[in-house]
Amino acid sequence: MSNITPATIEDVARLAEVSIATVSRAIHTPEKVAKSTRQRVNQAIAITGYTTNAMARSLRMGRSNMILVLAPDIGDPNFSSILVGLENEARAHGYGVLIGHTQNDPERGLEYLKFLSSGQAAGLVLFTGHEPFGHQALGQRLPPTVAVFEPVFGARTSYVGVDDVAGARKAAEYLLSAGHRSIAFIGDSKTRLGQARRREGYDVALNAARIPADRRIIVEGDGTTESGRLGLEQLFMRDTLPTAFMCVNDATAVGVMNGLAARGYDLPRDFSVIGFDDVPQATYLNPALTTIRQPRTAIGRQAMALLLETLATPLSEPKEILIMPDLVVRGSVTAPARR
C-alpha cells in the first residue's frame, strides 16, 4: 500500500508560485488566466498529480470521495484561507475537493450540481449564504451539506463560522471604550443572516451602554466597497454624521474610508472606522484598519470535519458551530474629535 501523501491545491500553488485562487481559476476558467500563468499551473498539477490522485481514490473505493465547494467569488480574500482548512481536513481523511465558481450565476450553480446527481461528489460546502438555485430540478434532495462564511437564511443547513454577534459586540464595545457615543452601523441587511447578526451585536453593545435607539444610525448595504461609499454619501445627504463608523465587513470599511478621504477628512482624527473579517489588505490601508479577525482556516477545518461526520452518520438536526473572533487593534480608531 502506498504511503504517499495526496497532493493538495496548496502544493500546486506553492510550486507554481501563485495564489490558491489563481490555481482554481486556471482549472475552472482558464480563459481568465494569463497564458504563462496557466502553463505554470498546469505544469505544477502534472508534477504533483493533484487532480488525478483524488479521482483515482474515488475509483478504487467504488464511491465518490470528492466534496463539492460552491463559491460565488473565489477572489474573495476570505475564500482561500477557509479553503485551506477545508482541504487539509478533507485530505487527512482521504477526500478531495472540487471547486465550483458560480460567479453568482444560477445556471453555473446548477451545472456544478450535476457532480452530485451523477455521484461524482459525496457532499457539499456552501459559501453562498443560500441553497443552490434550481437544485429541485435534480429530482433529489441535496446531499449532506455544510455552510461556511455565510449562514443559509431560512434553510435547515448546518453552519460553521465566526460568532458574528459576539464579534460585532467586541467592535462596538471598542468604539464605546474610545469615547464614541454616535456610532453608525453600515451594512444592515434583512436577507443576509450574517450581516443581520452583526447588526444584533451592535445593538447588544449599545443597549448595554444605554444609548437609546433613536440615537443609533443604521444604513443598509450589501457588504461591497461600493455600498460602503454609498452608505457614507447617504449620511452626508441626511446631514447625520456620527463620530465613528462600524462597518459590517472590511470591504464596506474600505468604501467608507475612501469616501471620507475623497472629501478631505483626516482619519482617524476626524472619524474612526472599524471593520470585520481582517482581510489581508486591512494592514495596508492608511490608516491601517482596526477590525475583527475571522479564524478562517479553523472555520474550514471544522466545517469539513462536520461534513465528513455527517457523511458517516446523518444528523437528525442541523448543527451550528460558532468560533469566537479576535479584535485586531490598528490605527483607524481613536477618541472622537470635537466638532
Automatic annotation (TrEMBL):
Q: Which InterPro entries match?
A: HTH_LacI, LacI/GalR-like_sensor, Lambda_DNA-bd_dom_sf, Peripla_BP_I
Keywords on record: DNA-binding, Transcription, Transcription regulation
Domain HTH lacI-type spans what residues?
7-61
Q: Does the keyword Nucleotide-binding apply?
A: no
One Pfam family assigned to this protein is LacI
One GO MF term, please?
DNA-binding transcription factor activity
**SUPFAM superfamilies linked to this entry:** lambda repressor-like DNA-binding domains, Periplasmic binding protein-like I
Q: State what protein this is by name.
A: LacI family transcriptional regulator
